[in-house]
Amino acid sequence: MVTTTVASPTEIAAHLRLAITRTARRLRQQGFAAEGRGELSPSLAAALATVELHGPLTPSELAARESVKRPTATRIVAKLEQLGLVSRTADPSDGRAFLVATTGGGRDLLRRLRTRKTAYLARRLARLDPDELATLERTAEILERLLDEEASP
Hints:
The chain contains six helices and two strands, in the order ααααββαα. By secondary structure, the chain is mainly alpha-helical. It has one domain: Arc Repressor Mutant, subunit A (Orthogonal Bundle). A two-stranded antiparallel ribbon has the order 1-2. A hairpin with a 2-residue loop joins strand 1 (about 85-90) and strand 2 (about 95-100). It starts with 8 loop residues before the first helix and ends with a helix.
């Protein structure tokens, strides 16, 4: 009789954390190295994606969503605007504030980065057998469910 030892949740968490961190780093490197936009840090890219997904946003809303201080969000917006990736418009509900939205160039950049990262990962996944692919698909579903449960009130 063969017995399989299952690692503890803590051991699995440590292994997953490392694998996810390394994968995320490789995907970031692929996206930015090929794009030639070294000035777009991971923080700027994350903020740009947040503006695209949830915008238009005020800098305060961006700060809350990115878990940074308001002055940091203001600096991020200024850099993204300087790069032509976001635009500012007056906030119709508060004349003293402004809203940030992605520009066409910002949306195009995010689309190219996502496409490049997906292609990078797809090339590696193509080397796997069908059982391994099915396992990874199920793993992705489980991870999404865990994250969705965390986000629920």
